[in-house]
Amino acid sequence: MDFGKVSDNELKTVDFTLPDDGKQTAKTLNGNQPAKQPEFYVGCAKWGRKEWVNMIYPPKTKEANFLDEYVKHFNSIELNAVFYSIPNQELIRKWKEKADENANNGFLFCPKFSRTISHIKRLKGAEEPTDLFLANISEFGKYLGPCFLQMGDNFGPKNIEVLEEFLKYLPVDLSVFVELRHAEWFSDEGNRTRLFEMLAKLHKGAVITDASGRRDCVHMELSTPEIFIRFVGNGQEHKASDEARIDEWVERIKIWMGKGLKKVYFFLHQHDEKDTPVLANYTIKAFNQHLGSQIAEISFLGDKNEDITKQTQLF
């Protein structure tokens, strides 16, 4: 994931401190009681990583079987694969069967809306591909998690009515989170307020993207009592910094849980995805120890297991 990538020299100057809660977060969580059993989902953005063979995938695992192995380690995935083309129902059923046969404690696919809808049509006149997309992903059945709608960098606040009409077109009971990247959604107070009030009114969530070079996207606005965080780490050479950032997220999530936060979707990305399972395991350990989640830790293979366990010691 290259979004928000900065050079190592620039990285030294980044302030990773999480901002204060936004105004909409206070409204969304105002007066809520702590959830009795919050739900936690931690995963990656893709399963097709050859670098994970001999790390979490058994030796000689074929690419066709990567998903079979992925679902043994994680309870969710941020499904970017469906962004590039709308998958047919047969493919969705195939993925579902792999989860059926191999997932240990349930599993959720969290599909990204196709780029035909978001980037080509830019939500205008997108009813036909949207209907097809929704009909096909419905084949996931109980394995369907929230969908997320990622708009391009040039989709700015002047398009808010287009965004609102599109969200109104979607099924009311469809769980959706929206990721926006144009800087003026966040820098202008009027745009910001209008956006998050609209999302709250429609019961749609707001993706928080924590990337080094785009701190404005760490907006800390909750429009529903659920969060969808896309965390972009900077690799093993910046392990201490990334883990400190995870620690701070744990502290903030704990505060939100005390105010009624019900679900946490936390997806790990890195510019080099080779060591993403290591960072994900650190996150799982932190959630289990400090937030009371009961997510199974990742099972690393061979002699690497002991070393990686040492690498993921908690704060």
List keywords for this structure.
315 residues; alpha/beta; TIM Barrel; eight-stranded parallel beta sheet; 8 strands; 38% helix; disordered C terminus
Provide a descriptive summary of the structure in words.
With 315 residues, this protein is of the alpha/beta class. The protein has one domain (8-311): Protein of unknown function UPF0759 (TIM Barrel), CATH 3.20.20.410. It is built from 12 helices and 8 strands. It has an 8-stranded parallel β-sheet with strand order 3-2-1-8-7-6-5-4, with helices on one face. Helix 4 (89-102) links the parallel strand 2 and strand 3 (108-111). The relative contact order is 0.18. Residues 309-315 have low confidence and may be disordered. This is DUF72 domain-containing protein. InterPro entries: DUF72, UPF0759_sf. It comes from Pedobacter steynii.
Low-confidence stretches: 309-315
| Rg over C-alpha atoms, rounded to the nearest angstrom | 19 Å
Strand order across the largest sheet: 3-2-1-8-7-6-5-4
Q: What fraction, in percent, of the residue positions are helical? A: 25-40%
CATH homologous superfamily designation: Protein of unknown function UPF0759
Q: Biggest sheet, open or closed, and with what strands and sense?
A: 8 strands, parallel
What is the rounded distance between the termini?
27 Å
Report mean pLDDT, rounded to a whole number. 94
Q: Tell me the strand percentage band.
A: 5-15%
CATH architecture heading? Alpha-Beta Barrel
Fold-level CATH name: TIM Barrel
Q: How many helices does DSSP assign?
A: 12
H-E order: HHEHEHEHHEHEHHEEHEHH
Q: What general form does the structure show?
A: globular
The overall strand count is 8
Structural class: alpha/beta
- Overall domain count: 1
Q: Specify the CATH class.
A: Alpha Beta
